[in-house]
Amino acid sequence: MIWLVNLLGLVLMLAIVWWFWLAKPASVQRRADSDSVDILVDDGVYTPSRIEVPANQPITLRFLRKDPSPCAEQVIFSDFNISAELPVDQYKEITLTPQEKGEYDFTCQMQMYRGTLVVT
Ligand SMILES: [Cu+2]
């Protein structure tokens, strides 16, 4: 029976590796007729967590935090020197204008919540 336990452990480990490091969530593009994207903050994930925006255009990210745990209370865009407190159950708007194409991560203060702004 011990092999079965080992096998289950291995499968679980692979699932965790896949979930945290390998899975690339589908990216969401900003709607053509809108300059904002809504992001839900709950259950340890930003939804969507991968957001595609064009360079040199202001974008407003509207964070709606549902997770009351302190882990979710800040969002940090380190590449843009932006950090903000997120109130529970209220939209918090962050507007920025990315100039360089590339991928920019945003996280909570503990880097457990993770998202990526993809500038194209
Ligand atoms: Cu956190």
UniProtKB/TrEMBL annotation:
<dbReference type="InterPro" id="IPR028096">
    <property type="entry name" value="EfeO_Cupredoxin"/>
</dbReference>
<dbReference type="Pfam" id="PF13473">
    <property type="entry name" value="Cupredoxin_1"/>
</dbReference>
<dbReference type="InterPro" id="IPR008972">
    <property type="entry name" value="Cupredoxin"/>
</dbReference>
<protein>
    <submittedName>
        <fullName>Cupredoxin-like protein</fullName>
    </submittedName>
</protein>
<feature type="domain" description="EfeO-type cupredoxin-like">
    <location>
        <begin position="13"/>
        <end position="119"/>
    </location>
</feature>
